[in-house]
Design brief:
Blueprint: H1 2-21, E1 25-30, E2 45-50, H2 55-58, H3 62-68, E3 74-76, E4 91-93, E5 99-107, E6 117-124, E7 136-147, E8 159-167, H4 171-178, E9 182-188
Antiparallel strand pairs: 1-2, 3-4, 5-8, 6-7, 6-9, 7-8
């Protein structure tokens, strides 16, 4: 009798394990960190199979993502780090995003990463050298979209071009702050995204 119960139990358990193994959902993971504003059809994505019960509602399936890729206006509305699944809430339409790209020449870029949230500080250069100017916070929570690659032929000047996304309402203030004789510095926010 015990043998029959053990056989029945092992058959049931084996059937459950087999059904569970076959119950996967194909989803995309981000191969390289993506910044806000990155088009879904231009992101570097890889397919994996997951066993998450909530995967079909919480994360983009391959089928959903492939359908959304057909529209070039489909973008990441929040950054997604390297190796992460793509949450459905991280994808939207470019028309919904009220951010504008701006390029800045920035020193101290070693700690910056694409997709990271940063604060923009500027320091006025006093050409006469009479007194040191205090740094001024211009804008918080800006998204890093791209960082210029260093050219090995010309060496490093310490200054690189960084593209950031600025809220539309703050564009004028940021442009005023970085024009003229100022040095721009982007300070990463603690816990800001980026891979």
């Amino acid at each position: 009798m015990v043998g029959v119960v053990l056989v029945a139990l092992s058959v049931s358990l084996g059937g459950w394990v087999f059904a569970r193994a076959d119950n996967t959902v194909a989803v995309y993971v981000v191969a390289d960190s993506t910044a806000v504003g990155t088009r879904l059809d231009q992101a570097n994505l890889e397919v994996i199979n997951v066993h998450l019960d909530t995967a079909t509602t919480t994360y983009l399936s391959v089928e959903e993502a492939d359908e959304l890729k057909q529209n070039p206006e489909t973008i990441f509305t929040s950054p997604v780090g390297q190796g992460q699944l793509i949450p459905t809430e991280a994808i939207g339409n470019a028309a919904e995003l009220s951010l504008r790209p701006l390029s800045l020449e920035v020193a101290h870029t070693a700690t910056l990463k694409v997709g990271q949230l940063v604060d923009l500080w500027v320091t006025a250069d006093d050409l006469r050298g009479a007194e040191d100017k205090e740094p001024e916070l211009v804008a918080r929570g800006l998204h890093v979209v791209s960082i210029e690659e260093e050219d090995p032929l010309f060496g490093s000047s310490g200054v690189r071009e960084v593209q950031i996304l600025v809220p539309e309402a703050a564009v004028s203030e940021v442009l005023k702050a970085v024009s003229g004789q100022t040095k721009a510095t982007l300070v990463p926010q603690v816990g800001g995204a980026g891979g």
